[in-house]
Amino acid sequence: MVCLSGGREFQATDIRSDPRSDLAIIRIDGAGKIPRAILGDSDEIRVGDWTIAVGNPFGLGPSVTTGILSGKDR
After folding, report:
1. Is 36 among the domain residues?
2. What is the Cα–Cα distance from 50 to 34, expressed in whole angstroms?
């Protein structure tokens, strides 16, 4: 079930998921036009680049944070 910020709810189909990274690609039928995030290529990111993390940690509510990448391969 997908709940949008405007209160609409839709049944989603799990297209691909990765439990290790807690990331999933889903299909929502009947939602009309909704914004989508364009993801970057993690192989192309460089130290000093701006980053953003969006999620719902522990189911407590929406969360967004930004920062500057300080290191890779740690």
Report:
1. yes
2. 25
Statement: residue 62 has pLDDT above 90: no
Q: 3-state SS of the chain?
A: CEECCCCCEECEEEEEEECCCCEEEEEECCCCCCCCCCCCCCCCCCCCCEEEEEECHHHCCCEEEEEECCCCCC
pTM: 0.47
Beta bridge partner(s), residue 54:
64
Domain count, the chain: 1
Distance between CA atoms of residues 45 and 25, nearest Å: 21
Q: Which domain holds residue 6?
A: 2-68
Q: Which residue has the tokens 């391969």?
A: 73
Least confident of 8-12, 20-24, 52-56, 64-68: 20-24
